Amino acid sequence: xxxxxxxxxxxxxxxxxxxxxxxxxxxxxxxxxxxxxxxxxxxxxxxxxxxxxxxxxxxxxxxxxxxxxxxxxxxxxxxxxxxxxxxxxxxxxxxxxxxxxxxxxxxxxxxxxxxxxxxxxxxxxxxxxxxxxxxxxxxxxxxxxxxxxxxxxxxxxxxxxxxxxxxxxxxxxxxxxxxxxxxxxxxxxxxxxxxxxxxxxxxxxxxxxxxxxxxxxxxxxxxxxxxxxxxxxxxxxxxxxxxxxxxxxxxxxxxxxxxxxxxxxxxxxxxxxxxxxxxxxxxxxxxxxxxxxxxxxxxxxxxxxxxxxxxxxxxxxxxxxxxxxxxxxxxxxxxxxxxxxxxxxxxxxxxxxxxxxxxxxxxxxxxxxxxxxxxxxxxxxxxxxxxxxxxxxxxxxxxxxxxxxxxxxxxxxxxxxxxxxxxxxxxxxxxxxxxxxxxxxxxxxxxxxxxxxxxxxxxxxxxxxxxxxxxxxxxxxxxxxxxxxxxxxxxxxxxxxxxxxxxxxxxxxxxxxxxxxxxxxxxxxxxxxxx
Length: 531
Known about the structure:
mainly alpha; globular
């Protein structure tokens, strides 16, 4: 198990490195976008439009293919059945080609009707322009599903970096488009940006295609629907797709409500989401994605007492690593979100007032940050055991709570508190976090019955939150007494102080993850190797 854990950490590091590259370019893209659009109507239109076809990507893309395809494909590779694995890859590719073509065509035709459900607050020219942008984006998002197929193959072969770094070219395409056509008015610029986005989707797929074809030399595009392996993937795919669909519907419920909150609400939520997704992706998704192939091999065909013990230990190790990084991320959203938002986006049309508004939304999203990242790893464990129904049932519960709490928080609370309706977006993100905690506790309770007790010890969680709070207080003091050097320099000093304080305190408290991280850094600096 020692070697397996080290390999798992190495794989998580590769995933994290790829995601970091992608997210950094994503933040750069969002900064350029915010500079030219701020929280204007044009920003609202593009943000809303981009979410509509993204439903297709999320429903059939990375998360679903990873959860349904990787466990079966990785098991074939572990059994040295390369020929069967190649046939499975080709069959899934053929099915996706047909399925995505049909859905993209239907999506383009049905866009006006979809918009009534997703952006009911948009009327007139704003609605017409949103429909145009969605129709341009739909084919590109279909191509991203092919990228998810590439990711599944690459990850199963333990090739993690490329698949998660590939979105860099997607972000670059959007950035270069905005810079090239920056002289246009906002409404025309977002049309060109939509075409630049489609080009980026194609490039993201092509950079992965070559390495994938080398890994599946015997692949042929055939509808081999009678294959037992294809049926296994298909059965899991439907369950996971419905589950992901429920999660996406939950996101669309929030979006639909936000269109009723006035100008800037959707753009503000999208800007906050670009920051919120950084720790989710770097730590939650990186660890969950890297663990799924290993968990799938561990689970095998039957989970007996010995296998349950190994899965539980693997899960707990991943949860501790997630908690170590996500707890300070949540605290930073609450206490230092103004510094983070201003440094990243306060430029041009994006004002200090916009920074404070996005900070409030970001703080709301911090409520469920830990639950969503923990939930990803628990869901991966279920998928590795080929149980897709349990995550689906609990996702439905989450949807119900998201809808009820979201409506109440967004539409009623601003009136009760005497604040503008726009601030209902804060209630939306916070209520979604509460729903995420409910889903997480359901996932953990059910899995504990199969594997025994799982989770991070309460003593460790208390130490992490105490460390993060103490570090945040130190960072706030630095911010208070620091002369005004502009948002970027302020963030550099304040966040550095926060990070140094957090690592110092957790090291002194002998938090295992921190000791391991600092130990590795010291060994690399001194050149010493483990004996």
